[in-house]
Each structure stands twice: as C-alpha cells, then as structure tokens.
C-alpha cells in the first residue's frame, strides 16, 4: 500500500515543506517555472513515475505542455481524458488504461497503466490540467479518491500564488488580444490597396446542410463532418463548379458552432489575384499577412491554391507552422484533381513543405453528373416554391453531363425561370445544347440545319458537353461538323483561312462542307457569320 495514504494531509505537507513551495511560487511571474516547481513538488509527494502539466488556453480549445523542455512551446488540441477534464472541470483517475474506454491507447506509452488527471482552477478560471502517471513496475498502490483529496488540499494551500498567476495570465491574454487588434489595424492600413481584390470576409457562412441525397454525396458529407471536428488543414479537390466553396463554408460553420466561438472569421483569399501581381511583388507578403491576421482564431480559405506564388507558399508554411499555428485553420480549394498537386510538386511550382501542409487531410468532390438525381434536387432549390420542372425538362436536367458543375446548373435554371411565364419549366425554356446532349435518340441529335442558329459559344459548350457525357457515343461526323462550323464562323466564312486553321486543303474543306450538308448555311453574299450570330 502506498505509504503516503497513511500520513495525515497536513503532516505530509509539513514534511514536504509547503511553506517553501508557497514562497517560491509567490516569487515567480513565469508560468513555466511556476508549474515546473509545482510538478516537482507533486511528483515527490505522490510517488508517481511521470507528471505532465498542460496549460489550458483561454479558449479552452488548445493546450500547451509546460514542464517538458522539448514540448514547451507546442500548441495542440486536447485529446483523451484531458479533453474530458477540461469539459467537466472534474478530476478523473483510472488504474487500467488499456480497458478504460475514455483513454486513447495511441496517446500513452506501453508501460503506463494508471493515470490521475485533475484540473487546476483559480477564481473559477481553468488554468491547467495535471496528469499523474504510474508505470506497470510501480510499487505504489493504485490511485484512489484520497489522492484527489490530497492534491485539492495542496491547491487550496497555494490559493494565493494561483490567484496571482491567474491575474497575470489574464492580463497577458488581454494584452495579446489588443496587440493582435493593433496588428490587424496596421496591416489593413498598410495593405488597404489589396483588400477586396485579394481577400474578403464571409460574414455569415451557412451551417445548412448542402443539398444532395446520392450515396456518393452523403459519404462526402460524413467525411466533411469528421474534418470539421478537427483543427487540421483541409484540402478540397474538384473541378470548378462542383461546390467546393459551399462545402468549405459548411465545414467552417459547423466547426464554429462546435467550438461555440463568438468570433470565428472566415477569410477568403483569391490566390489567382496574388499570382497576377507583378513578379517582384511575389516576395511582398503584406496582402497574405493581412488576410492571415484577419483570420485569427478562424479559417483562412485559399481559392485556386494551385496558383499561389512559390515565395508566398514558403512564407505561409513558415508562419503557419510557428508558435501560433493553431490560431488559424487553412482550407484550400484545388480546381483540379489531387493528381495535379503531385504534378505541380514534381514540376517545382509547389513547395514540398507547402505540399505536405496541404495534404494532411483532403476530400474530393464528385462531379454533378455522377450524383444521380441530385441535379434535380438542386434545380428545385434554385427554382424556389413557385415554379417546377415538367417531366420532360426533368429528363433533360438529369441526363445532361453538367461539365461546369453546380454553377452551370444554377445559371441554366435561373435563365429558364426568367424566360418562363408559367408555373412549369418546359424543355423549350432550356438551352439547346442541354436538350441536344441530353437526348439519346439519333433523331434528336443536332444536324446541320439544327445547328445553324447556334452561336460559337453554344457550339463550344455543346462540344464540351458531349465529350463529358459518358452515356453518349460521339460520332466523328458530329465532331467534325461542329469544328468546321465554329472555324468558318471565326474566319467569317473565308474558306482558305478556315482550311489553314483546320490543317486541311481548301478542296478537302469544300468536300466536307458538301458531305455534311453545310453548304446550305453559306450563301453567295457571305452572310454566314451574320446568320450564326443572330
């Protein structure tokens, strides 16, 4: 049995010279030395093998290990029983960590079998958590309630030094907050010319669940919720229009709700704007520094992260991995698949450190065409309650490939909503390329006569769409017909110029025009360009 349980508490304190400890603690303003002295005293008093002191930051979301030199400056999120003690502000002990469900085996050395964790509270403010551990070869008896009573009695004996420390830490925290606000104000004053063009603040990010019932999208949302519970950096991959920005705002919003943060800013940085700065300004970190300061205790959202200039990548890694790294969480949006990030790293346009900083956690967004009937649910959302899609229009919406994603769907629906004076959206209210590429029958596919009123942008959109639509077989004749029409329009019906651009002879071009029935589109007055654009 542990001998210290047989000694009355007051006698034990006298034996360990509590008055000397109180004097030492009153004489120091350094929190690290304060808790180191307390840890040494407790380790001798309680006969434990290891004792860790975790300083709890004012937001109760971060901790720092204070009594070990190598980890003194490390800022982490509380895990395991430490997080439980911070939430409950009550002590907890276990003498069989391997079987206790509240403990995380990965966080403990194999030889540790027992732990007692107890909060240090002064003036109703949580200052730190003590974690006392015993190994499997320890000769001391298991932890019990008497150990908690003994430590609480000690803390009551040093209430005055603890109160002094609490006042010092509160003043220091207030000073840090004021200093940060001053830096933000200075950064805004110095870098005001960059504000708005390069970054913006999202004032009210929505925590409303993104729309979609498909299995692949629901699996993505499950992963997003897991990511939101962590403070690790996050990379969202996918093509433009797939909903990366919406998902990022959702993750930020539920993260803020989980931490009950009153000020949890979301700062959005347009990395392509940074890339467009003159080359000599790529080493001017003021715009990025301003955005980083504005995102304090919140989220920094990097749009088009693949376009962030190399020097700024290096600066961000060096700053973000510093002492205050947990004060800002970075969510990056990659407008390509994840393979593009590996290619950029191999090409030397992406810093290796920045690559691994981004790659800690990533989510790939599915294409809208792979999400089943989610396109219909999104279309209904964009339409609102007053209008609906006809059954035939629903078929076109569902079967179209949506190469530009949700943003393209939204634009098409809003245009159809404007064009329709009825309560129901009909196929005629949808763009021609949506109807054509959503059709499966040969009769409904566009011929030369059906294409004659399509402008060049529509032709290009149609060509892109049929290649993205996996359900359709694309005839070479159709592709050639569209390319020839678009080239002739660009060349204002000049066949010699068009044949040069197409890489064929003028005679071959004439033959293809006749073979594909395109000669009816070109009259003797060369009004082809006017016909296609009106």
Helix content: 40-55%
Query: Stretches where pLDDT falls below 50 for ≥5 residues?
Result: 1-15, 190-196, 440-445, 523-534
According to DSSP, the number of beta strands is 14
In whole angstroms, the N-to-C terminal distance is 97 Å
Polypeptide structure, described:
The protein has 534 residues and is of the alpha/beta class. The chain is 47% helix and 13% strand. It is built from 23 helices and 14 strands. The protein has helices at residues 9-15, 18-26, 31-46, 80-88, 145-157, 159-190, 215-228, 244-259, 271-275, 286-294, 310-320, 339-347, 352-358, 374-383, 391-399, 405-419, 432-437, 448-451, 456-468, 476-490, 495-502, 506-515, 528-532, and strands at 50-56, 63-65, 75-76, 92-94, 112-122, 125-135, 199-202, 234-237, 266-270, 298-303, 328-334, 362-364, 388-389, 424-425. The strands form three sheets. It has a six-stranded antiparallel beta sheet with strand order 3-2-1-6-5-4, sandwiched between helices. A hairpin with a 6-residue loop joins strand 1 and strand 2. It is elongated and about 105 Å long. It starts with 8 loop residues before the first helix and ends with a helix. 33% of the residues are buried. Mean pLDDT is 76; it is low at 1-15, 190-196, 440-445 and 523-534.
């Amino acid at each position: 049995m542990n001998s210290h349980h047989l000694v009355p508490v007051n006698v034990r304190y006298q034996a360990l010279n509590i008055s000397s400890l109180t004097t030492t603690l009153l004489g120091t303003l350094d929190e690290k030395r304060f808790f180191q002295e307390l840890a040494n005293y407790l380790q001798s008093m309680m006969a434990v093998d290891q004792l860790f002191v975790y300083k709890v930051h004012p937001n109760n979301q971060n901790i720092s290990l204070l009594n070990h030199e190598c980890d003194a400056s490390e800022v982490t999120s509380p895990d395991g029983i430490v997080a439980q003690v911070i939430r409950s502000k009550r002590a907890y002990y276990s003498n069989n960590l391997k079987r206790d469900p509240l403990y995380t085996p990965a966080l403990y050395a194999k030889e540790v079998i027992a732990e007692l964790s107890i909060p240090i509270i002064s003036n109703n403010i949580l200052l730190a958590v003590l974690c006392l551990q015993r190994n499997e070869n320890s000769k001391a008896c298991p932890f019990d309630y008497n150990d908690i009573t003994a430590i609480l009695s000690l803390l009551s004996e040093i209430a005055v030094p603890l109160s002094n420390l609490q006042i010092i830490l509160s003043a220091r925290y207030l000073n840090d907050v004021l200093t940060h606000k001053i830096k933000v104000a200075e950064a805004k004053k110095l870098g005001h010319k960059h504000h708005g063009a390069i970054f913006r603040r999202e004032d009210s990010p929505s925590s409303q669940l993104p729309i979609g019932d498909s299995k692949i999208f629901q699996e993505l949302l499950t992963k997003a919720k897991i990511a939101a519970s962590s403070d690790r950096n996050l990379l969202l991959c996918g093509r433009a229009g797939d909903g990366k920005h919406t998902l990022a705002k959702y993750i930020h919003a539920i993260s803020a709700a989980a931490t009950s943060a009153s000020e949890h800013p979301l700062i959005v940085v347009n990395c392509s704007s940074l890339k467009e700065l003159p080359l000599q300004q790529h080493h001017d970190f003021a715009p990025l520094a301003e955005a980083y300061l504005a995102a304090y205790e919140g989220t920094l959202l990097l749009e088009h992260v693949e376009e962030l200039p190399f020097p700024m990548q290096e600066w961000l890694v060096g700053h973000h991995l510093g002492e205050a790294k947990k004060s800002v969480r970075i969510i990056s949006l990659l407008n390509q698949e994840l393979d593009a990030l590996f290619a950029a790293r191999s090409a030397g346009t992406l810093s290796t450190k920045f690559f691994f900083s981004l790659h800690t956690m990533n989510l790939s967004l599915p294409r809208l065409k792979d999400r089943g009937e989610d396109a219909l649910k999104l279309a209904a959302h964009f339409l609102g309650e007053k209008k609906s899609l006809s059954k035939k229009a629903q078929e076109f919406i569902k079967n179209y490939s949506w190469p530009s994603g949700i943003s393209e769907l939204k634009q098409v629906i809003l245009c159809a909503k404007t064009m329709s004076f009825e309560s129901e959206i009909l196929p005629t209210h949808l763009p021609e390329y949506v109807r054509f590429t959503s059709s499966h029958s040969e009769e409904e596919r566009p011929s030369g006569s059906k294409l004659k009123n399509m402008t060049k942008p529509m032709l290009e959109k149609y060509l892109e769409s049929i290649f993205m639509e996996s359900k359709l077989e694309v005839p070479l004749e159709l592709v050639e017909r569209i390319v020839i029409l678009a080239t002739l329009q660009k060349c204002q019906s000049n066949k010699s110029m068009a044949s040069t651009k197409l890489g064929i002879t003028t005679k071959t071009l004439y033959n293809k025009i006749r073979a594909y029935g395109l000669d009816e589109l070109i009259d003797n007055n060369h009004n082809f360009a006017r016909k296609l654009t009106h």
